[in-house]
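User: I've been going back and forth on whether these two constructs are worth ordering. Before I decide, could you fold them both?

Assistant: Sure. I'll take them in the order you sent them. The first construct and its structure tokens:
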Amino acid sequence: MKTTKNYPKAFSHIGITVPDIQKAVEFYSEVMGWYTIMEPSLVKKEKDTAIGQMCIDVFGDDWETFEIAHLATSNGVGIELFSFPNGVKEAPEFNPFNTGLFHFCVQDPNIEELIEKIVSYGGKQRMPIREYYPEDKPFKMCYVEDPFGIVFEIYTHSYELTYSSGAYSK
């Protein structure tokens, strides 16, 4: 029997594997405005430090080095970028019907300007900008890709406002 009240956990960070860590840091800092809190660094496989052992625990033994960088959004969510020298460098196939991470979402009230900047840095706009409630609320959304083929979504308003009372009904 449940005896303690559950509470919503905070989102700490998301890890994204990219083919070129320098280009990814440039894109995410210049286009998204995310703060670089740790410049790209080389991690080597070793068991002498807690970080080295943790990476072996997570990635196994089939690696020697990788690059990592840490960024942060305006509300403190971390973006952990990884680049593995022996990894596949092509974008993953977009298949939202399969189990797994489908996308992440960012929020910007000037969706048109952000999409324009994403495209100018080599990303793609995957669909037209759509309005959730064209007659009632100015909420817009759009799916895009970064230059590496990673799909994400843009909202103009917060998640709570977008899906609050009566989100899909009148």
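The second construct, handled the same way:
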Amino acid sequence: MTSLTARRLAPPDMAEMATEIALCGVAAVCDLSGALYLPDLDTLVVSDLHLEKGAAFARRGQLLPPYDTQATLRLLDAVVTRYQPKTVISLGDNFHDRIGSALMPLPFREMILAIARGRDLIWINGNHDPDGTTGLPGICADEIALAGLTFRHEPSLAHGKGEVAGHLHPSATVRRREKSVRRPCFATDGNRLVMPSFGVTTGGLDLRHKAFTGLFARTDLIAHLLGRDRIYSVRFGNLLG
């Protein structure tokens, strides 16, 4: 897998920006952007884009800077360009509310069309956008299974083996140079993986929060933290509470 990963991570010096793992025997690459690349499936996975979040808040009378959608799509375009996947899966909460995709301005719609050109795009439905997307390329589904992995929005306590999910926006805290540093992270024990949020205006939930109880074998749980210029892989027991 090393040579394939190096090829996908052009230029080669960007290899430090990714960490290779295995999920139920399936090779995976945790990218510093917060995306997951599955080389054997030629599939890129992102989660919790929360596109049009600023617009959703504006509709409720709360003003946020209106740049979130463009910034998130630019990041998505960059990581798609880097890996050139055949398939892109977005794990739900693709939009911040039910009508975000229908009302999304044309320039952002054209950015998504460009990202989807020549590849399959799969939108997993989330709790923020349970009705799927409107007028965008690709298909919508509540979940999808590929090569023994199941891609869904919310983690399932009942069906966790081989699960790749989002929803919880995991983050973790470590001590670095006498300071506590909290960063988004991939969380996995080798059987299940919960993705960090990809949207630029989304927050994070600490991996020690009760919402994660029962999802992982904590003795095997590793947080792959998204640092400024590299990924830091830290065992759960070494995280700060």
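Notes on the second construct follow. The two ends are 35 Å apart (CA to CA). The longest strand covers residues 179-188.
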